[in-house]
Write a structure and sequence with these properties.
This protein is an alpha/beta fold. Helices cover 47% and strands 11% of the residues. The protein contains seven helices and five strands. Helix 3 packs across helix 4. It is globular. The termini are far apart.
Length: 186
């Protein structure tokens, strides 16, 4: 769910969130850091959206900016305990990611590829995460470490694939593309 500072968009987003909650539809948010110039109200809005979302995706830089936390485990625990969040996906750029639920956590290293442009890598990651969560046999908050590791590796592969090209949407990985990236690692 993108965040928007405009009032009409904010009102529309609140209506969408209300309908989603009433319909028992999971909500996911990408923190999407907008830079140091964000007001304290805008930062609080991001934390609010995270607290009402079942899935929260953010970078390590965003976690420090929004939550003042550099320790990955403490920061993800804080996010999990701040609301209804069931899974925190913390991306670490070329270093991979950390996926965490209240039950388990896993760190998965990134894939080494010839990177041309990182535009869209986070979107590729989040798309792969949501795709994976829709295909699991277990509720998000009960995923075991092994399942989280498989999901994290797939998400990292999709993000890595997208960085090999310029631009974003036209370069999202298919499942076959992600498997080719995963095959590159021993």
């Amino acid at each position: 769910m993108p965040l928007s500072p405009t009032q009409p968009a904010a009102e529309a987003m609140e209506k969408i969130l209300r309908v989603a909650r009433e319909s028992d539809i999971a909500i996911a948010v990408d923190a999407q850091w907008r830079g140091q110039s964000m007001t304290s109200e805008e930062r609080a809005e991001v934390r609010y959206k995270a607290a009402i979302s079942e899935v929260v995706k953010l970078t390590d830089v965003e976690m420090e900016f929004y939550y003042g936390e550099t320790d990955l485990l403490k920061g993800t625990e804080r996010i999990l305990n701040a609301g209804v969040t069931k899974l925190v996906a913390l991306t670490l750029g070329a270093f991979g990611c950390l996926l965490r639920t209240r039950r388990a956590w896993v760190y998965e290293p990134g894939f080494r590829v010839a990177t041309l442009d990182t535009t869209g890598a986070g979107d590729s990651f989040l798309g792969a995460l949501l795709y994976s969560l829709c295909r699991t046999e277990h509720p998000t908050d009960s995923l075991a470490e092994a399942e989280l590791a498989q999901i994290a590796a797939f998400c990292n592969a999709c993000a890595a694939y997208s960085t090999q090209f310029r631009g974003s949407l036209a370069n999202m990985a298919s499942v076959a593309d992600a498997e080719k990236i995963r095959a590159l690692m021993p």
